[in-house]
Amino acid sequence: MIKMADSVTEIVEGCRLPVLRKNQENEDEWPLAEILSVKDTPGRKLFYVHYIDFNKRLDEWVTLDRLDQKKLQVPKKEAKTPTKNGLPGSRPSSPERDVRKSLDLNVQSASTPSRGKTLPTPKRKAESVSLASQVTAATSVPSLPSSAEATQAPVYPAVRENFSTKSRDDEQLTSITTVTQNGTARRVLPPQQPGRKRKNCGTDEMIKVFQFNSPHTTTGCLPPGEDSQDSSDGIPSAPRMTGSLVSDRSHDDIVTRMKNIDCIELGRHRLKPWYFSPYPQELTTLPILYLCEFCLKYLKSLKCLQRHLTKCNLRHPPGNEIYRKGTISFFEIDGRKNKMYSQNLCLLAKCFLDHKTLYYDTDPFLFYVMTAHDSKGFHIVGYFSKEKESTEDYNVACILTLPPYQRRGYGKLLIEFSYELSKVEGKTGTPEKPLSDLGLLSYRSYWSQTILEILMDLKSDNGERPQITINEISEITSIKKEDVISTLQYLNLINYYKGQYILTLSEDIVEGHERAMQKRHLRIDSKCLHFTPKDWSKRGKW
């Protein structure tokens, strides 16, 4: 609860008020912000603000003259924390906690007998950062798991409910026929008559794809649903107890909500961190934190870095170079064999990945570091990590392109490389959910381009309409079936027509895809990959 300040009030932590900032058009705006911290410096007082409904990477220290004190909202003092079960200090349940608890109770009562013990919170620590969980502007898209898969894929929970409203209990969408048709219009199906049931879409049923030579697209028949990366009811699923790196946000405090490093010098680049990273406390007061760009060791001064470089014999990441084409190389690094490098990489990555838990046991993970090399050595561009053994077919745990290399195609190259490894392993894969805002955009773009590339390259045989199944798309691309289906729905391509599913490719879709592919110059060449997958189920190989 907050109340408006009636008179001049001291600005303290927890207060909310409009703060002056520049938007993308370099215009002044006054978004509402929360004061997270206050500090006194010689000659002035500084306030650390978080802009409400803005990403945390925009948080910053501001001076008093940027605060609109006339609209100050002072946090209302709450009563003493009530006791719970007779134990002092227990916090009252929040609405979200109550909802989560009621959901858990419903699931337990509906599915399992209440005679077993609940699983304890894992004591073992796992590695670092994964894909973050902020998705703001994405269109929600349901996936279509079969009833057998529903128990195995909790990130796609609400699909059958959505589709029951359309009077069909659909199984997996699996087959596609491509048809090229001249014309600018198509008949829209009338509403379903009561009592009339559509034919179920079985595992081998055909789905037609019409390519219209017209900019007009047809309205998709599939209803909007949950996004495939989040659990139902908007409540993120709890982190798994194995190698998951997703934070449950239950241990957030003011310290971890604030950026603690002002600037990082990495090779020829200076980086402004976006988020908190648990570097040693004594380094957080430095104006610049220096990193060796080859071993990623952190140092407190330029002189210390120069002394370190005379001793450091690394000119590339440790581990095996498994790919090289042009100036781009990929190195595979075992989190157990190269523990120090892996931990330093996680600390650096945490500066740019939010909603993550940073751990120091990197043994269960492999790290794939992408570099660009020149005469001075191999310079880190980005990386992704993956579990050695994933029970949920995750082929990426965390993925990051460093800010100096963003918006240049390297992020999509990292994603493409992760799927290239999955092809060699003979598996389909998916990134660990939930995705960050930037991660979701990158994956949506990659999935869309990859699937459209396949659909547009289909050729007809003997005058028949070319056909391909969802399973075949998944096998060709190593993209998990749920991601294939959610992408088709996200693009609004999939419709129900005359008793079967069709995909409609409009001129806008085709032209947009061709423009995007012309800009995409960086691609993975499978001939340059030298990678032999290991069976990590044999513990001796760890």
Sum up the structure in keywords.
alpha+beta; five-stranded mixed beta sheet; five-stranded antiparallel beta sheet; 21% helix
Q: Brief overview, please?
A:
The chain is an alpha+beta fold and 542 residues long. The chain has helices at 95-111, 147-150, 159-164, 302-311, 339-350, 410-425, 437-456, 470-477, 481-490, 507-519, and strands at 2-4, 16-18, 21-22, 28-29, 32-41, 44-51, 60-63, 73-75, 175-181, 207-212, 264-266, 269-271, 289-291, 298-299, 320-325, 328-334, 365-374, 377-387, 394-396, 398-401, 430-431, 467-469, 494-497, 500-505.
Radius of gyration: 26 Å
Question: Which spans have pLDDT < 50 for at least 5 consecutive residues?
Answer: 4-8, 88-205, 213-241
Strand order of the largest sheet: 22-9-10-24-23
Q: Please count the beta strands (DSSP E, at least 2 residues each).
A: 24
Overall pLDDT: 74
- Report the sheet-strand fraction: 15-25%
Please outline the major beta sheet: 5 strands, mixed
Structural class: alpha+beta
Number of helices, counting only DSSP H or I runs of 4 residues or more: 10
- Percent of residues in helices comes to 10-25%
How would you sum up the global shape? globular
